[in-house]
């Protein structure tokens, strides 16, 4: 089963509201947000040995990568919104 099948309802809703490209990017942001929540939960249990109270370094790196990806996608969505062809 592909992501297009698994998330059909979400895709249809967002594509209708925002257009195909922005709608798919919006669903992508939702998927990344879900991943960020899961990584955050894992970070609670996977603490750094060097700095107690902080997630392990790999969890910190994964979290940063997901946050950065969300920022890039948000930037593309904003640019698409401003473009005359949107």
Class inferred from helices and paired strands: mainly alpha
The coarse silhouette is elongated
Task: Give the termini distance in whole angstroms.
Answer: 30 Å
The figure for the number of domains is 1
Radius of gyration: 16 Å
Please characterize this protein's 3D structure:
This protein is mostly helical and 86 residues long. The chain has one domain (8-73). 78% of the residues lie in helices and 0% in strands. The protein contains four helices and no strands. It has helices at residues 3-6, 8-18, 20-45, 57-82. Helix 2 (8-18) crosses helix 3 and helix 3 (20-45) packs antiparallel against helix 4. The longest helix has 26 residues, at 20-45.
Secondary structure: elements and pairs:
Elements: H1 3-6, H2 8-18, H3 20-45, H4 57-82
Question: Any descriptors?
Answer:
single chain; mainly alpha; elongated; 0% strand; 86 residues
Quick gist of this model?
78% of the residues lie in helices and 0% in strands. With 86 residues, the protein is an all-alpha fold. Helix 2 (8-18) packs across helix 3 and helix 3 (20-45) runs antiparallel to helix 4.
């Amino acid at each position: 089963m592909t992501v297009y099948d698994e998330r059909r309802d979400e895709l249809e809703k967002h594509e209708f509201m925002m257009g195909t490209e922005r709608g798919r990017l919006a669903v992508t942001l939702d998927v990344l947000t879900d991943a960020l929540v899961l990584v955050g939960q894992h970070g609670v249990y996977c603490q750094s040995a060097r700095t107690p109270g902080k997630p392990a370094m790999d969890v910190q790196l994964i979290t940063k990568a997901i946050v950065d990806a969300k920022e890039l996608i948000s930037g593309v969505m904003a640019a698409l919104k401003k473009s005359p062809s949107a």
